[in-house]
Amino acid sequence: MMEIPMMSGGDAVDYDRLTASTRHVRAGDIFLGTGSEEEQVGDLPDMSNPNGSACLKDTEIPVHYPDDIRVAMDSNGENKIAFSPPRGDYPGGTDAYIGILPKDIGIDPSIIANGHSICEVMGDYGRDGDAMAGDIREGVVGYNKDGRVPGGARDYGNVNMTIQAGSKYEIGSGFHENICITASDLASQTKGDAAASDLAYGKKATVNGKVVTGNQPVIPAIDPAKSVVQFDNILFARISPGIHRDKATSGYPEVSIPRATALNAMGIINRGQAQYGGIGAGTDYYAINGLPEGLYQKNGAAWAPEARCSKNTVRNYLGVEASKIVYGQVIAEVNGNRKTADYVGDTLFDKDFYFAGTSYSYLDSGGDNYRIDGGTWIANDKYAGYILLQFGINYNGYYDTVPVWYPIGTNSSRRFMLACKNTLYSTVGLVISRNRNGDIYIKGLNGYHSGTYRLKIVRVLRCNQTCTVWD
User: Residue 255: pLDDT above 60?
Assistant: First the structure.
């Protein structure tokens, strides 16, 4: 027979109907339950207490870690993150939580886009990405540290083409697939007719697909002419066969021709610095003519080029002769020997005489005074009444002194002395006077050296030019 104990309130307890057990009752609570008619104490953990779990920051509200975590599909066909909380009594509300780490469900910075966060986990995926639109093919989306980047690089696709030498294919910015650029065959691109003789020595060229090496010598910038000829007033210079390409200082290849060679080709003779010719005259000029044809050069001489005429040719042409030049004068290196008077008068005395001391001989009369008849004087000329005296040692008919004019008036009692040096460098002299009658007297001076002398006395009637007068 079953016993039903009575409760304090008067109610009876049917133990057979009790299902609670210690695992269903919060720890520390007394209850009647299954498996015993005695009071029991529950052992279900009070989850409002941490029981070793962490708490929310700066609170005593526990955050318990679940016993199991999974992603499962529910009866509605939706995937959900499912947590199995640890065994215990949960107060509900905000007095206790079930919590997991983000990594427990795969939340990691490396799989979260840079700059974005999940569960307060900042992503760094793409942080090192630097791809720009030009780096990504058109129609393709990429990501960099700033996020989504639509592709902007052109897609060229397959490229297959043939190009000629000298042309080019520009590979544009973008994506190319299976690029194949083929050059045309060399022969079709190098058609020509150049031979080795058309090319400079050692230089190479591809002609009709074959390499041709030149054999023509390269001539220096200045090529000496091999020969020079003249035809139809044109000079032709023969040059070295070969390539004339190098430039001289003029900016052109040059051919050098010695002056003598050019002149010879033109039939021109190099006459040097000077040549002799003849002499002639025009209306108002004299000319040196008849010079030989050719080239005349300075050759560094300031006086050159020069046309010459011999002195004798000039003298002969101008009629320069000693007999035409007054004695004592020189013209064109010719000493004159003509003794023409520049006056009109009578020679009263002109002879040699021997003079010894105060004596003289070879005169017409002896004695210390030698008288010469003065004759008749012409008084209407300014030189009338003068005598021209010339006295000196006789040198083959010439005097060694020049004529001197002496005024000796008709009433003059003045005496004039003529003196000269003889061959022994002794001085001899004469005293000459004239009386009222016009007679001229000559008297030797005492104490002078003897010797042969010449004396000429001219009575001047008229003078043809200005004469030197000793007063």
Answer: yes
